[in-house]
Amino acid sequence: MSIIYVLITVSVIVAVIFFTAFVYSVKRGQYDDTYTPSVRMLFEDELVKTTTPKAPAQKENNNQ
Amino acid sequence: MESCYHCGDPCRKSTISHLDKLFCCNGCKTVFEILNDHDLTYYYDLQHTPGKTPLAIEGRYDFLENKDIVDQLLEFDEQQTQIVSFVIPHIHCSSCIWVLENLNKLHPAVKSAQVNFPEKSVRISYNSAETTLKELVLLLCRIGYEPSISLDDFNKKEKNVDRSLIYKLGVAGFAFGNIMFLSFPEYFEVHEFWLEQFKGLFRWLMFAFSVPVVFYSARDYFISAYKGLRSGFLNIDVPIAIGVTVLFLRSTLEIIMDWGTGFFDSLAGLIFFLLLGKFFQHKTYAFLSFERDYKSYFPIAVTRLVKKDGAAGKETAYSKSKPSATEEQQTPVYELQPGDRILVRHNELIPTDGILIHGTALIDYSFVTGEAIPVTKQSGDKIYAGGRQQAGVIEVEITKAVEQSYLTQLWNNSVFSTNKATAFENLTDQISRRFTIGILSIAVIATAYWLFIDPAMAFNVFTAVLIVACPCAIALAAPFTLGNMLRIYGRHQLYLKESSVIEQMAQVDMVVFDKTGTLTAHQKNGITYQGITLSEEELQVLHSTLRASNHPLSRALYDLLDDHGIYTLDDFKEETGQGIMGIYGTTQIKVGSQQFVGHHGTAIQSLDTQVHISTNNNYKGCYIFYNNYRTGMEDLFKQLSSRVQLAILSGDNDGERTFLQSQLPDRAILKFNQKPDDKLFFIKQLQDQGKRVMMVGDGLNDAGALAQSDVGIAVSEDVNVFSPACDGIIDASRLMHLHDYMSISKKAVSIIKYAFILSLMYNLVGLAFAVTGHLMPVVAAILMPVSSISIVVFTTVCTALLGRKINFK
User: Fold this and answer.
1) Same domain, B90 and B140
2) Distance of residue B42 Cα from the nearest chain A Cα, in angstroms
3) For residue B253, how many other CB atoms are within 10 A of its CB?
4) Tens digits of residue pLDDT in B521-533
5) Which of B131, B373, B436, B683 has the maximal Cβ count within 10 Å?
6) CA proximity to B700, closest of B501, B406, B497, B420
7) Which residues between 189 and 218 in chain B have a beta carbon less than 8 angstroms from any beta carbon of chain A?
8) Do the beta carbons of residue B514 and residue B671 sit within 8 Å?
9) Phi, psi (deg, nearest 5) at residue B60
10) What pLDDT digit, counting tens, does each position of B44-97 carry?
């Protein structure tokens, strides 16, 4: 049952890794603007369509 | 009527059709063409009529040629890469984000652009070898996204965002989860063999997790409690700090002595919920600023006239030789010295006090003094900072540096440096005083009782009382109620600086209004005509004449006469500050002041602004401009007067005293010709009489009064543009609902009171366990979250119901 010591250590390390990731992301400003990215992510496809009008057709081919 | 494809405004007479689309003006059409040429018409698909008519900008951004100013504005400047951030008030929809982030398609020098929508700002990275900052700004202006660059941007320091609350919350949440997990086996008191083996490890792990919670996450509570105690004040943080300390010490002692598992779970949970409440309360409106002073109103640079002799020739900045052997130079306002001559163009702001040298000044001081009508100044007259020049170019000799001008002096008053919030004892602190004393006495009595019965239990009971009495639920009631209210108000266009303003609003018993700009709407005047009726022909000539003038009164009158046609005038003349003259065929028409139209008879006695008309030198009559009061004002006064006393302060003359008196209840106070200092002093006097004053104002002239009052609300036609430092900003269209907002704030305070009662009941239940010596960790671990969560649910539901009631249209 001493495996529990290993498991506990592993679980704590994993938790600490996630916690550091959280602190890092806050520090980098990822939570400063939570609205704009949600709009921005919807743009990309239409952008391709307007700049190169043939793009959508190609895309369909790719999907097939 | 058709509406413009670009900006959505109704197309008036001059509809332009281009590529099957209608535009209201050439400006809008040009924006469309620019976007169309660069394959960016998706802009219009994303959002219906997203644009804004670009404004004329000639010469306005010349100051961006001055290298010092550019250096101040740039965030990053290294060889090929320059980064700059602009606040663009027009950013309002997804189309805006899209087009600004595709700025690189419009200009190859732009590397990337990133929009921060909540702050309405865009961060642009560009190559200064291929373009200049000025060109970049002009590009933005051309597509209708004019950035606002003011003195505030000068010397801008790196913004230091305080994220410590998020970290503290993160630490507490992390520890809370893990401790709960580790203490789970012991909740059920299973005496299983293996569990007994690992008990010690689990307990010390919990201890390890709780250390950062106590010493980092809960730090603010200890600091605040210490500060409170030192100033002899029992705030809510005192019982919290006691509770946390006792929880931690007793739990540590328990695991050292192997008495039990301790209360680490409750400890971490308590801190986590408290911080959650704090976090929730901190709703901020990133695109608004409540701390603004004159700096965000002032331009960053002005045109200085420098005598052209050897020394000035060295200046590398923008220069243009003028016949009078002077040259124009763009200078940061801070560098202006008394004795300098500056040029102020049409619609520019006068940055500091000075004397008018050349030109006729028509200066609109409405924002500074509250006078509604622009004043005319002759050369030699003194002019003051903050006025906006409305007619042509003037030359001004400066008599004071910017920091010493009449306007900036106002900011030296101590009201701007004192923090209002600290002086206010909020509801939670009020209750905490009695609560803390009560808890301490219960703890002492219970301990004394147990000392007689069973001394071994005494310590246990004493700590248990302090633990269970830790006022988590009480401390959560106000943050969640007020945080919710803040959001509800925000949805209804009343933006408050912080949640404590709501509590202060509930206590207001006197409301003071400013007149110009607050009770009256800007630029929308009521106009009536008195005199000999004008013929259709004359009206048409008048309309055509007005068309050529840019004077605000001309524009207002022009809009009034919009039904009449337009002639091409044979002759037109504008005498700045006097009036305008137009000739068509045999009709000559003069519009302007009484002297200008050549009327020598007795004028109509009125303090209202008049515009006189004469045709072929025969006096006809005059148009009278009344201030236009916002609709619903009388109802608002009626509603408010049942609850609070009213007063009106105006920087204007008393021409409308009788009218206002008829609108107001009898007890109301009316004061006219009030200077900014007078307003501040008036508020102070009221407060000395024990009144809690709400000031409602709009301009810089109210800034002192807004800062002095208990609740300062700034009225704004467009919340994105300048409003003085205040506690809240209300959209002008919602001003007439002020009474509803105030009565809701009262109801919010009663919700908090009910929540207090509810949480006190939980405390009583807990105390019953504690004094009888039965407080098990599992009881604390259940009671604490249950009480906290039920308080959060209660306040959220109540405020949501309250929010549903405000449904004014």
Assistant:
1) yes
2) 7
3) 14
4) 755 556 777 777 7
5) B683
6) B406
7) 194, 197-198, 201, 205
8) no
9) -70, -30
10) 877 777 777 777 666 677 777 777 777 777 877 777 788 888 888 788 888 888
**Prediction ipTM score:** 0.72
Indicate whether B708 and B571 sit together in one domain: no
CA B210 – CA B244 distance, rounded (Å) = 11
Chain B residue closest to A53 (CA)?
Answer: B39
Structure tokens of B14? 């001059």
Q: b/e per residue, B533-561, with b = 16+ CB within 10 A? A: ebeeebbbbbbbbbbebebbbbebbbebb
Looking at beta carbons, which residues of chain A come within 8 Å of B116?
32-33, 36
Q: What is the DSSP string of B92-140?
A: -SHHHHHHHHTHHHH-TTEEEEEEETTTTEEEEEE-TTT--HHHHHHHH
8 A C-beta contact, residue B23 and residue B5? yes
B40–A36 CB contact, under 8 Å: no
Residues B652 and B673: their CA atoms lie apart, in Å, by 5
3-state secondary structure B154-205: CCCCCCCCCCHHHHHHHHHHHHHHHHHHHHHHHHCCCCCHHHHHHHHHHHHH
Q: Is A50's CB within 8 Å of B161's CB?
A: no
Q: What DSSP string describes B528-580?
A: EEEESPPPHHHHHHHHHHHHT---HHHHHHHHHTTTS--PPPSEEEEETTTEE
* Closest among B711, B699, B689, B695 to B646, alpha carbons compared: B695
Per the structure, how many domains does chain B have?
5
The domain in which residue B566 lies consists of 526-626
The CA-atom distances, in angstroms, between B192 and each of B185, B196, B256, B465 are 10, 6, 21, 31
- Angle at the Cα of B72 (from B51 to B31), degrees rounded to 5? 15
The answer to whether the beta carbons of residues B367 and B700 sit under 8 Å apart is yes
Contact of B678 with chain A, judged by CB distance below 8 Å, is answered with no
Residues B92 and B25 in one domain: no
**B169 in a domain, yes or no?**
no
**Is residue A17's pLDDT more than 90?**
yes
Q: How is residue B656 annotated by DSSP?
A: G
**Which among B608, B626, B644 is the end of a domain?**
B626
CB < 8 Å to B285, chain A: none
- CB of B174 within 8 Å of a chain A CB? The answer is yes
Among B304-318, B384-398, B630-644, the least confident range = B304-318
List CB contacts (< 8 A) between A49 and chain B: 42
**Quick one: pLDDT at residue B318?**
42
